[in-house]
Amino acid sequence: MDAVVGPARAWHGAAVTAFLQVQAIKKQWAHTVTVGPITLDIARGEIVALLGPSGSGKTTMLRLLAGFETPDAGGGRIVVEGEDVTAMSPARRRFGMVFQHFALFPHLDVGANVAFGLRGRPDAARKTEEALRLVDLAGFERRKVQELSGGQQQRVALARALAPEPRVLLLDEPLSNLDPALRERTRRELRQLIKRVDITTVFVTHEQEEAFDLGDRVAVLNAGDLEQVGAPDELYERPATLFVATFVGRANVFRGAAARALGGPQGNDGLVVVRPERLRFAAAGLPGVVRERRYTGAAAFFLVESESGERFEVLAEPDAAKVGDRVFVEAERVIRVPETGR
Amino acid sequence: MSRRNAQIAGALVALLLAWLVLFPILVVARDAADGTALRAFFGRSGEWAALWASVWISLVSVALAAAIGVPLAFLFEWFDFPGRKTLGSLIALPVVLPPLVGVIAFLFLFGESGFIARTVQALFGLPEAPWRLQGPAAILLVHAYSMYVYFYLFTRAGLAKLDVSMLEAAQALGAGRWATIRRVALPLVRPSLVGAAILTFMTSLGSFSAPYIFGGGFRVMTTQIVATKLNGDLPLAMVETLALAVVAVVGLLLLRRTEGDDILVALGKGIAPRPRPIRSPRIRVLATVAGWGFAVLLLLPHVTLALVSLVPYGAWTTEILPPVLSFANYARLFSEAERLRPLLNSLWMSAVSTAIAVVLALVAGWLVVRRRVALRSAIEGLLALPWALPGTVFAIALAMTFSVHAPPLRWVLVGTVAILPLAYLVRALPLTGRALLAGYRQLDPALEEAAASLGAGRWRTLARVTLPQLRPGLAAGASLAFVAALGDIVASIVLYTYETRPISIEILSSLRLSETGVAAAFGVVLMVVSALVLGIGARR
Asked: Cα dihedral sign for B523, B524, B527, B530?
């Protein structure tokens, strides 16, 4: 399956038979902000994260998928299982959605919330029970939604979205409304659950860790454009753009002489990105002075200022240097990215 | 102020309020315990018919007002079409018509010698007016016109608070547009709908002008009470008043039970949906045309009133439109001392009652919310009580209580200049009280503490921090109270003297003398002043 929908193929928008196809979808807000055109193919059962800073268009993208926004005319299409759903209303699209604040109906109890999308089906009661059992809330039917904890509300929202057996599951910032202590555990449980149900999933997040942990592939958006799609390690090790390099993980950006000193390409436009853990103190290399030390336990971040005034971070053993030390820094691995564009 | 002094102040305010709003009702209850009157009330079918008429007119008014107001609220809150903003505010215009003014405007418009009737008569060459604007249908027409605004405004406010993701969640789960409205939107705005229903029911139960002018032989309880009182059968009037009060309280309690918790506050943290443009050009044109057509229909009474006010006495007989227009009526209004007087009376009496109601509410709010005095729930209940009872009940109760000299509780105030401002004050208390209690509750106590820590004394804190923060609520409550007093008819008709007669009484006597132009001119003045005051009160 990877061979068919791998990043390289999806990147060129090739006419492969992916389960969910986004083809040249575009949405213009007012006159200045434009999202897209975006093309993205998603395989059956795959979990894709839409990652980006606020205003990058990731929520718009999710809402376009759900059908709450209509894409601009001009040939853009959203296709599921070969069926064009671009003009279909959200009600008939059969996409399940979990909202950022869960949007549980406060006038209905847990059972009625989950059964909402099962109206008119003879097996509604059984399906409701199954969906609640799936999220580990069996027997919660008669509870009021206001009485539930944040984590329970999230699981009810998930059960409600899954009960009608949608074709695609959409999650809007699924963990942002939860206690930070709870997030890591919930993230793993959520991934296990989605994999167990085996449903194609797209979710939005602005946190890199969440995208990496939960998604099979991550689509990085910036200012309305899709910068790169790929597996987490690919994004981290081989970022296609400067934005992806700096947004995904910590990154030091070097230009000119400093870039060349670290082994970057020759020439004036030399620009390289080095991860803090790929820099180390050495006997020779780029000279500088340690300005700050931030201790994190297993290691420490050293803020180094070079002679030409560049400031960058080195991740090293806690006792590798002291504030005020004159040091030389060398790079184990540099990432070359173009200054702008893809 | 020390803790003990605050408690004493709380007790004094509670006593004063009890004397103002509770004592008169108790006097009525005692006087109603009269064997002959009770037998008369229970024996006569007319009494029961009037009571039943009050109830069913009120229920049908609620249904009609909801049928007009709720769909309009959805249309204006959810959809966008040309003129939406302008129309959205125009559509609330019936509020600026005080009840009596609205009624006479309808009389001039739809009455047997009104514009519409004359036009129909001329068009079809009929020998006489095609209809008479009388009976229950006429009353319901006026009620629906003036009260749908409650449903419109309340529902819009409810919809504006609604989280858009609730609606999207329903759609994502397969609910179509109507199912979303029926299964999600309407249940979520239920508190607003019940609030509007209560307000419409109470207003309609206490409505006096429409049944008084259009009732003909059809009596509701409010007109029945006033008629009995004017006939001099005081014990029977007491029984009738008490019966109306009981119906009002029972109705209020029944409606309250349907209200449910304020569920929107519990989970609502999202943003309201933005209005969606109507896409289909045909429906778009239809909505626009219907919207503007409706607005014109709503404005017809206002325009009619203005037009009639420009017709000199006796200048308009059988023509469809008046042949002569002039400002003669307005000139008379402001140049003849006897005409100017009711205007000035209404203005000063409304201003004084509003000012006292504001001061009382300020003190009560501070004692209830800030000092949390022992009697705080008593104070709050007493402030709200006049709202739960029709105006007629208080008019009769005050007339009875203050026509006897028995100090320290009862004084002869009927016939003096004090009685009407007192009656207006009682009606104003729930309006200013509710606004200022809510204002105090929203006010962060830390603001006053910050002022104190910066060295501001009690009065400086009040003037520079507390009052400016309370201003929006205060302005809203005060403007509503002032407009209610200005447009009052039922207390006025029971309690006025020739010297203190207010505008509404003058309008009635002008009508009786067939001086329709003068009555309309008074109506226009009332309408303009009400609109100005409400406009000022709504500024933020």
From this structure: negative
Asked if B188's CB is within 8 angstroms of A95's CB, the reply is no
* Within a domain: B375: yes
Count interface pairs A-B at CB distance under 8 A: 81
The CA distances from residue B214 to B64, B106, B268, B362, in Å, are 18, 10, 45, 40
**Would you call A335 helix, strand, or coil by DSSP?**
strand
Amino acid letter at A148? L
Length reported for chain A:
342
A146 with B170: Cβ contact below 8 A: no
The domain in which residue B182 lies consists of 34-308
Task: Kindly state whether residues B244 and B380 are assigned to the same domain.
Answer: no
Inter-chain CB proximity A103 and B270 less than 8 Å:
yes
Select from B273, B308, B343 the last residue of a domain: B308
| CATH label of the domain that carries residue B7 | 1.10.3720.10
Q: Is residue B248 in some structural domain?
A: yes
Percentage with pLDDT > 90 across chain A: 47
Cβ distance B420 to B502 under 8 Å? yes
Q: Tokens 């003058």: give the residue.
A: B506
Strands A271-274 and A326-331, by their bridges, are unpaired
ipTM over 0.90: no
Per-residue pLDDT of A271-300, as tens digits, reads 888 999 999 888 888 889 999 999 988 899
pLDDT in tens, B354-409: 999 999 999 999 999 988 899 999 999 999 899 889 988 999 999 989 988 888 88
CB nearest B176 (choices: A91, A99, A160): A91
* Cα distance between residue B55 and residue A101, in whole Å: 44
Task: Dump strand ranges (E) for B134-183.
Answer: none
Could you give the domains of chain A?
2-94+167-246 (3.40.50.300), 250-336 (2.40.50.140)
Please name the member of A68, A94, A116 whose beta carbon is closest to the beta carbon of B168.
A68
Count up the domains in chain B and report the number: 2
